[in-house]
Request: fold
Amino acid sequence: MKIVFATNNKHKLEEVRAILGDNIEVLSLSDINCHEDIPETADTLEGNALQKAQYVFDHYGIDCFADDTGLEVEALGGEPGVYSARYAGGEGHDSEANMTKLLSKLGDNDNRCARFRTVIALIRGYGSTGVRGYENSNNLKSQTNLFEGIVEGEIIRERRGGEGFGYDPIFMPKGYDKTFAELGNETKNHISHRARAVAKLAVFLSNA
Reply:
C-alpha cells in the first residue's frame, strides 16, 4: 500500500515510516511533486490536519493523511496548542525561540503539567488501493477519518538531551525521568503522541 503523508518534515517522516513499517509505503509531498505552501489557517489541530489532507486529495487525487500536533500547557491555559510550531512568531519554525518563550512564560510556576496531542486526518477515495493517477482527481469521492494520540507529562526547567526536535528537550513524559530528547527516537517512537495516533491509523489501514 502507498499513501501520502502531507509533510516534508524529515523528522516526522522518519518517525511515521518507522512506526508504520514495511507494509505501507509512505510518500512525502516532494515525492508527488507537491511544492505548494499548503495553508494551515484553522484554529484547531483537527482543522489544520483536515485542511492539509484535503488540499492534497483535492489537487492530486491521492489518498493522503496529515497531522497537526500541539503542546498544551495547563498553567498557560492550553498554550501554545495549535500555535506550537510558531509560538515565538517570525518566519519558520524556530524551536529554540519557542522553548525560550515557553520557559519564560512559565517562570517559577510549580504547575508544570503539560501534554502533547497529535491529530491525524486521513482522506481516502472510495475503492482506493493506493496512489492513483491525477486525471480523476476532480471526480473522486472521499471518506475522512480522524485519529488522536495524547501523552501526558511535564515541562522541566531547562533543556536536556540532544535527540528529537521541537519541544522534546523540555518535555518529560509521565512515568519517565528523561525528556523525549534524552530517551532517543526508538523509545519515543513507541510512546509518543504521534506514535499513538499513527498506531491507530495503522490498525485502521490494515483492516480497510
Q: What stands out?
A: Confidence is low (pLDDT under 50) at residues 128-137. Helices lie at 10-20, 45-60, 95-106, 180-183, 185-191, 193-207.
